[in-house]
Queue: 2 jobs
Job 1
Amino acid sequence: MSGQSTTPVDSQDEEPASALETARRQLDNAAAHVDIDPNIVERLKHPAQVHEVTIPLERDDGTLEAFTGYRAQHDSVRGPYKGGLRFHPEVSRDECVGLSMWMTWKCAVMDLPFGGAKGGVVANPKALSDDEVERLTRRFAQEIRPVVGPTKDIPAPDMGTDAQTMSWFMDAYSMQEGETVPGVVTGKPPVVGGSHGREEAPGRSVALVTREVCDYYGLGLDGTTIAVQGYGSVGANAAELLDEWGASVVAVSDVNGAAYDPDGLDIGSIPAHSERPEAVTEVADNVIPNDELLGLDVDVLIPAAVGNAITADNVDDVDADIVVEGANGPTTAVADRRLAERDIPVVPDILANAGGVTVSYFEWLQDINRRSWSPERVNEELETEMLAAFDRVQEEVDARDLSWREAAYVVALSRVAAAHEKRGVWP
Ligand code: GLU
């Protein structure tokens, strides 16, 4: 990686070319607000390692197809690498590196003893049979086995992977190690060492953070209008909880379009992706296109679908008072600046959806201790951790007049930098 140039400051009006460019630009912006050794910033612009593997997969028809897999490990100064594995056709080396940087900040903002990683396979799981996905997962686990482990690097679910994928991964790893090693991945089903509440956790943290930020801006949740883009695990769980807590969820969407009711949707009647995939428009009385959802005049907009959803092209349509990021990287750098210019606060992904990795940490503790926590304990401890992180970020927002993203980065970067300073660089 070294020798590659980073984004020059005068190109801030152009969209970064990749998640890696975005992550580097955000790091530069944050570093300007922290008293930090520039050598440490330089180090943090690069991953410690990126592993690339080929995964030969025997298709159901007997032919062999070679897939490419990655594991990017960004920084481990505060503890083992941690982050998801995605199975998606657009997975790339740079995307994995950018997302691994975000995991470093996400773990640090939550004060978890982990560093950042991300990986994935360039594949469309929807085009593979369940048996093929299982073989792909097991062989990928085998290929990256030397670089993962409960004290080295702990994968988790992300786009295109779920609890079943983690179970296969854990089984393949354990078979080769000759012993059951539940702590090698998190996000497993509870019957094999997974944690209660892990599946709902990213959506739960989005809901908690939405509640807190509404309170900060003097809005009670009661009657607050909310639009949720994306009705996968994050969006559906956030919508369900916010509805339960009295908010008026007026729109939710999936790839086919959005259900919209200005008086508030009956969220219970819309099946989650896990129950019936992509059924939002089938059950809705009133359907609007996805781009109209982004332009609704609501109190809170939650982009919880994919990265790069709010871009230079559609940001001027956004009519919400607050944006809470449910997906990883849903707001591009240029869109983020335009929202800031219009005084629309954006609560960043690294805080808002950090419930996922926080309950992953709880799962890892449960696996090490061979003792499971009740669902109530998980949710209580998650709320405690989320409120502590939110308050810490809010202190920076208030004290230095920073955006929520800058403030979250300042908290995270200060912790990572302090650890690097104490440990020192071994040149
Ligand atoms: N993939 C999730 C994220 O982006 C969870 C990572 C984890 O639990 O390690 O935060």
Job 2
Amino acid sequence: MALITASRRLRRTPFSDGVEAAGVSAYTTYNHMLLPTVFRSVVEDYHHLKSAVQVWDVSAERQVEVRGPDAGRLLQMLTPRDLRGMLPGMCYYVPMVDETGGMLNDPVAVKLAEDRYWISIADSDLLFWVKGIAYGYRLDVMVDEPDVSPLAIQGPKSDDLMERVFGEAVRNVKFFRYGVFEFQGRSLVIARSGYSKQGGFEIYVEGSDIGMPLWNALMEAGKDLDVRAGCPNGIERVEGGLLSYGNDMTRDNTPHETGLGRFCSTQTAIGCVGRDALLRVSKEGPVKQIRPLEIEGAVPPCDRAWPLMAGDKVVGQITSAANSPDFGTGVAIGMVRMTHWDAGTKLTAQTPDGPRAVTVAEKFWI
Ligand code: THG
């Protein structure tokens, strides 16, 4: 593919100067912002992520802030996950759906206070939908995009690096919980979460002015840990079954089709605008669903859906794929019709480089 032209619409981040100094070699766009995808090479980045610690500029995971007396009511309107047990200090992975039950986004919601949330969004303009619901229902809330940019620390040495900058208490933060920690006199929300299966944290950096000072402090503190700039890794996230909105699912899919039924409690999610639609489809169960898929032979870059065939019948599609160094096979995420979704089923993928033998796997690799 040719290069993408830089412009103001493709927003830089508070860490872009550091990312460029570290030698970023490719970006994608995400929420109209730059998101690094490669530093040294996808494979070199992958091995380093699994053995050391990386600092990721994931500013493109923008926050939709919802604040005011109706904040909790509005959040529950957006998702079929029952939020009644959610307390300040917790983060929830929440499928967000429209009135047909179609996926609009798959963000992480962060509950800051009874009347204040951040919705840490994947790549779709969720802000407009949330503002529309708030306005249409005359809710008493403010909805906007604050100056908050997530910086992820990922990899097996994440705790060691974070302790050096934020103190040993950061080790006590539990998975999908957050604590508030000081940096240069500023309070920052730090959660144990992130878009890899290697462990780590996400720092919600509030105020662009402290972006580079924090970036530099982490790089300085982690020198002997071989800390590097990194980014969500296209191989590791497929091995781990981490879904990508716009790639593995779109508005045409329900949460059940995307395997996110485990994050839905539609029966008790009173107020969710997609509740009636989802109650209908969840009763019957989906007729196609996301599956881990093993591919034989070299896997080309996946920049479009690859048809999955059983003989001359299309029975699904592959939406993300990579060659896995650690598992010695092609790994992929795809949507497969129920007639062919059992583990062990043999299929054929039509890739741009020709047909590939595919087997439906038992589970994701990490
Ligand atoms: N962190 C934050 N914001 C984000 C992402 C993130 N916004 C965009 C995107 N990623 C949203 N999508 C996901 C997808 C998967 C996960 C988080 C956000 C994830 N899933 C774990 C899993 O599936 O194993 C755990 C889910 C759970 O148990 O609750 O972490 O990464 N801030």
